[in-house]
């Protein structure tokens, strides 16, 4: 592998890792704070991707288009949907056994997938990359790197920085951290727990949907895309340590690199590598790399 | 009549109905479907031993199922039918051996981490079967000859296959019933209720859990063996995590902590699936059968927190006028 | 003969990071002697029990049980060798009946884990020991009740019964009287009196009246260290103890 290929693969790994982090961060917080195992989290990603596919022509027709406008409207819709879902379904799950949560969120996966099939159909669809991001940057003499992928990484990085700022520097972040390490504690601090739950859930939904939206032009949209992401995100969450957002970041990048380089260097074993890594890490550290403090 | 007796009679009646079913509805479609459901019921029972009886939530059960199925195909030769007498124990044994290895490692973790480690090992098995030529890759492999036992048990016949599956189901149910009442089974129940106390009382819990894990793997392997023989064909999807998930859904839907719950769950899950898939009822919409299934599952969580086996109690309290317990008022936290 | 030492802890120390939870505690438990450990909250009393029973490993020191050095033994192994403990918070099997709680505890002595076919309730060793233990703890009338539905006092009795069902020589009891009414306390103290002749008992307890009524020896812990040890009169009259512990809020 020459240096250019290596660099390109690094960029790919970084982009994949950051996307995984956006989805996994919500999953780890919903689990860490509310104690809910949310199997439907992959569906949120899928919903985001399909919003990118379905919304852009509508917005093009009514508001004259605009890539960022689509993202913004999609995000707003995601927050709203997350808020409603929490109210309608998840708020009933907090004190239930984990296995009941598994059952209900499994039911939700089926419902979301079928609604998707009813509304959009079962075909694979490509999503247009906006013109101003559609170019490539030449790397070396024969290779080049698409601008859009760089843009995805950059957007994700901005979000990661923002997320860590909120998490470490604001009162809301303080409440979330307190909640992740000790659920009883926030109740005793006099924080409105219903509000906190709803905010975290809506944010988790929005992050996953956002990841889906920006990933859609690269991956295209297809049935079952949510489930693919779900399992790999659970891997990220447990490697990182449940409830730990730093852990999720480290684990997401780790998985991003293992998967990307695995596919290049050991294509016949690429599928196994991620799970092998998880098994080794958990046998070495049975509670993940970073236990929520 | 005591409650226990009532339940035993229900179970016995249920098995009798299964025994009579081929003559009640002789259609080949029905026989094939019920054979498949009974195999899944054995699979669900194997998981119930871990999840419902020991409190170990395994998310990699499909690997044992798939290994049992692949072993059945790979071990039976291409020149003539193998004998059930050795092929069945060999298939179940292969799955048990894998379970022993996976269990010995993954039992070092707990809770959700355990769920994920068992998933990880199952995914490894999946990708090994999927990506290597060992088991025919993504295309899977065919079973040339179905195994036999002498002259009188030839599994080529759908009816014989049906009866043999029923025999295995009743056998598994009886075996687990006896096992759970034994000292070993009570120790597993104690581990589920309170492992800390078990340690403090003098039980070294690890070998108990490992034994349960291995037995569960063997039973899942038995189900896999039956599945391979019934279809005459195996492919990597038998090891897919979707199947592990479906088994979990079956036993939760049926009601955890009861052997009959696993069987109820398997039948309910598969029959609901058939119902919503039925074009005679839903016409064009049958294509979207997941929607109905998903909604029923959500409703089941909302109104039947103890699963389908709790349905009689809910109905009884309904009739007595107390109504359904509202969701939010339910006691009992997560584990 | 009647007062041989059954459990001896020497220089027991446990550190959590930089924090010393239990600091060079030495303690001896003899048969026919009820040894109480008192101290403020966070003095390290429960940790001491956890260390003696093997639930958490020692940082330093040794534990000797019936003449054997058991410092490196696991908790189940110590339990099998005759060390019984009860917990501060109820750790019964809430879904089982009272009898089955005791029977399962007694089964530890006759595990036969490979026996997958014989029904557990046909194991005479464990059913007998379970009846006996439940009887001693005064639970005869509620044998078939689900343990999780018992009153608080009865749950505490069940804790002791499960402990007794394993036939221990040494009992480590973590606040058996917590949350009990006067009548229940009286019954429990009578039980302790009955157990005294053939057991070595360590009692961690906050109820001072009860402690001074039943204890033969009292050890006082503050901040993980033993500040005094002696018979009840000595402790009652010790200036140091009064200042550090009894003086406060008593």
UniProtKB/TrEMBL annotation, chain A:
<dbReference type="InterPro" id="IPR001851">
    <property type="entry name" value="ABC_transp_permease"/>
</dbReference>
<feature type="transmembrane region" description="Helical">
    <location>
        <begin position="61"/>
        <end position="85"/>
    </location>
</feature>
<keyword id="KW-0029">Amino-acid transport</keyword>
<keyword id="KW-0472">Membrane</keyword>
<feature type="transmembrane region" description="Helical">
    <location>
        <begin position="229"/>
        <end position="257"/>
    </location>
</feature>
<keyword id="KW-0812">Transmembrane</keyword>
<dbReference type="Pfam" id="PF02653">
    <property type="entry name" value="BPD_transp_2"/>
</dbReference>
<dbReference type="InterPro" id="IPR052157">
    <property type="entry name" value="BCAA_transport_permease"/>
</dbReference>
<feature type="transmembrane region" description="Helical">
    <location>
        <begin position="16"/>
        <end position="40"/>
    </location>
</feature>
<comment type="similarity">
    <text>Belongs to the binding-protein-dependent transport system permease family. LivHM subfamily.</text>
</comment>
<dbReference type="GO" id="GO:0022857">
    <property type="term" value="F:transmembrane transporter activity"/>
</dbReference>
<feature type="transmembrane region" description="Helical">
    <location>
        <begin position="264"/>
        <end position="284"/>
    </location>
</feature>
<feature type="transmembrane region" description="Helical">
    <location>
        <begin position="195"/>
        <end position="217"/>
    </location>
</feature>
<protein>
    <submittedName>
        <fullName>Branched-chain amino acid ABC transporter permease</fullName>
    </submittedName>
</protein>
<dbReference type="GO" id="GO:0005886">
    <property type="term" value="C:plasma membrane"/>
</dbReference>
<keyword id="KW-0813">Transport</keyword>
<keyword id="KW-1133">Transmembrane helix</keyword>
<dbReference type="GO" id="GO:0006865">
    <property type="term" value="P:amino acid transport"/>
</dbReference>
<feature type="transmembrane region" description="Helical">
    <location>
        <begin position="147"/>
        <end position="167"/>
    </location>
</feature>
<keyword id="KW-1003">Cell membrane</keyword>
Automatic annotation (TrEMBL), chain C:
<dbReference type="GO" id="GO:0016887">
    <property type="term" value="F:ATP hydrolysis activity"/>
</dbReference>
<dbReference type="GO" id="GO:0005524">
    <property type="term" value="F:ATP binding"/>
</dbReference>
<keyword id="KW-0813">Transport</keyword>
<dbReference type="InterPro" id="IPR003439">
    <property type="entry name" value="ABC_transporter-like_ATP-bd"/>
</dbReference>
<dbReference type="InterPro" id="IPR027417">
    <property type="entry name" value="P-loop_NTPase"/>
</dbReference>
<dbReference type="InterPro" id="IPR032823">
    <property type="entry name" value="BCA_ABC_TP_C"/>
</dbReference>
<dbReference type="Pfam" id="PF00005">
    <property type="entry name" value="ABC_tran"/>
</dbReference>
<feature type="domain" description="ABC transporter">
    <location>
        <begin position="7"/>
        <end position="248"/>
    </location>
</feature>
<keyword id="KW-0547">Nucleotide-binding</keyword>
<dbReference type="Pfam" id="PF12399">
    <property type="entry name" value="BCA_ABC_TP_C"/>
</dbReference>
<dbReference type="InterPro" id="IPR051120">
    <property type="entry name" value="ABC_AA/LPS_Transport"/>
</dbReference>
<dbReference type="GO" id="GO:0005886">
    <property type="term" value="C:plasma membrane"/>
</dbReference>
<keyword id="KW-0067">ATP-binding</keyword>
<protein>
    <submittedName>
        <fullName>ABC transporter ATP-binding protein</fullName>
    </submittedName>
</protein>
């Amino acid at each position: 592998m020459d240096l250019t290929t290596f660099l390109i693969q690094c960029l790919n790994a970084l982009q994949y890792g950051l996307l995984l982090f956006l989805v996994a961060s919500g999953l780890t917080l919903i689990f860490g704070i509310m104690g809910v195992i949310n199997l439907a989290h992959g569906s949120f990603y899928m919903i985001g991707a399909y919003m990118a596919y379905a919304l852009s022509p509508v917005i093009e027709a009514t508001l004259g288009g605009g890539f960022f406008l689509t993202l913004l409207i999609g995000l707003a819709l995601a927050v709203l949907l997350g808020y409603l879902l929490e109210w309608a379904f998840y708020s009933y799950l907090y004190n239930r056994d984990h296995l009941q949560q598994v059952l209900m969120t499994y039911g939700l996966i089926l419902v979301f997938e079928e609604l998707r099939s009813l509304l959009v159909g079962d075909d694979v669809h490509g999503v247009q990359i906006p013109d101003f991001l559609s170019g490539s940057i030449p790397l070396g003499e024969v290779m080049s790197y698409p601008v859009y992928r760089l843009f995805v990484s950059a957007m994700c990085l901005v979000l990661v920085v923002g997320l860590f700022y909120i998490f470490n520097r604001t009162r809301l972040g303080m409440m979330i951290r307190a909640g992740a390490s000790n659920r009883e504690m926030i109740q005793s601090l006099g924080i409105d727990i219903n509000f906190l739950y709803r905010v975290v859930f809506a944010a988790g939904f929005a992050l996953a949907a956002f990841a889906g939206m920006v990933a859609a032009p690269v991956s295209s949209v297809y049935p079952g895309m949510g489930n693919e992401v779900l399992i790999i995100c659970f891997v990220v969450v447990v490697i990182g340590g449940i409830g730990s957002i730093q852990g999720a970041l480290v684990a997401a990048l780790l998985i991003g690199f293992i998967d990307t380089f695995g596919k290049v260097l050991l294509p016949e074993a690429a599928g196994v590598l991620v799970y092998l890594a998880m098994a080794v890490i958990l046998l070495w550290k049975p509670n993940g790399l970073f236990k929520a403090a | 009549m005591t409650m226990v007796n009532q339940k035993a009679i229900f179970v016995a009646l249920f098995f009798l109905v299964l025994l009579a079913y081929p003559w009640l509805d002789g259609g080949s479609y029905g026989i094939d479907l019920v054979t498949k459901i009974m195999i899944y019921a054995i699979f669900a029972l194997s998981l119930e031993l871990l999840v419902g009886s020991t409190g170990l939530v395994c998310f990699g059960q499909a690997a044992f199922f798939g290994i049992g199925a692949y072993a059945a195909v790979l071990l039976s030769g291409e020149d003539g039918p193998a004998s059930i007498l050795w092929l069945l124990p060999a298939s179940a044994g292969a799955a048990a051996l894998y379970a022993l290895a996976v269990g010995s490692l993954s039992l070092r973790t707990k809770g959700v981490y355990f769920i994920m480690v068992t998933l990880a090992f199952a995914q490894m098995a999946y990708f090994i079967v999927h990506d290597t030529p060992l088991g025919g890759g993504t295309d899977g492999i065919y079973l040339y000859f179905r195994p036999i036992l002498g002259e009188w048990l030839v599994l080529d016949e759908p009816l014989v296959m049906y009866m043999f599956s029923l025999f295995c189901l009743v056998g598994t149910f009886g075996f687990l019933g006896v096992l759970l009442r034994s000292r070993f089974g009570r120790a597993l129940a104690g581990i589920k209720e309170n492992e800390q106390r078990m340690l403090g009382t003098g039980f070294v819990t690890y070998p108990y859990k490992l034994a349960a894990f291995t037995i569960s793997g063997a039973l899942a392997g038995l189900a896999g063996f039956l599945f391979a023989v019934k279809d005459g064909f195996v492919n990597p999807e038998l090891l897919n995590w979707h199947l592990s998930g479906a088994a979990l859904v079956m036993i939760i839907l049926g009601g955890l902590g009861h052997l009959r719950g696993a069987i109820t769950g398997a039948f309910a899950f598969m029959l609901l699936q058939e119902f919503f898939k039925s074009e005679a009822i839903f016409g064009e919409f049958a294509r979207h059968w997941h929607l109905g299934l998903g909604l029923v599952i959500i409703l089941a969580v909302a109104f039947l927190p103890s699963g389908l086996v709790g349905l009689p109690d809910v109905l009884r309290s309904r009739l007595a006028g107390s109504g359904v317990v509202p969701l939010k008022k339910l006691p009992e936290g997560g584990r | 003969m009647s007062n041989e030492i059954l459990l001896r802890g020497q220089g027991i120390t446990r550190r959590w990071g930089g924090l010393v939870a239990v600091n060079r505690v030495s303690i001896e438990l003899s048969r026919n002697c009820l040894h109480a450990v008192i101290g403020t909250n966070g003095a390290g009393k429960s940790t001491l029990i956890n260390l003696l029973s093997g639930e958490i490993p020692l940082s330093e020191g040794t534990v000797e049980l019936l003449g054997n050095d058991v410092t490196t033994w696991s908790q189940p192994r110590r339990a099998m060798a005759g060390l019984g403990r009860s917990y501060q918070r109820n750790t019964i099997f809430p879904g089982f009946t009272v009898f089955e709680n005791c029977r399962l505890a007694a089964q530890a002595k006759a595990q036969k884990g490979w026996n997958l076919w014989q029904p557990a309730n046909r194991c005479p060793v464990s059913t007998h020991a379970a009846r006996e233990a439940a009887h001693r703890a005064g639970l005869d009338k509620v044998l078939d009740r689900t343990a999780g539905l018992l009153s608080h006092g009865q749950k505490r009795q069940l804790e002791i019964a499960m402990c007794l069902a394993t036939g221990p020589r040494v009992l480590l009891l973590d606040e058996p009287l917590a949350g009990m009414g006067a009548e229940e306390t009286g019954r429990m103290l009578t039980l302790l009196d009955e157990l005294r002749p053939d057991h070595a008992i360590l009692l961690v307890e906050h109820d001072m009246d009860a402690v001074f009524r039943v204890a033969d020896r009292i050890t006082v812990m503050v901040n993980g260290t033993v500040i005094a040890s002696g018979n009840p009169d000595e402790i009652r009259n010790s200036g140091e103890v009064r200042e550090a512990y009894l003086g406060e809020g008593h």
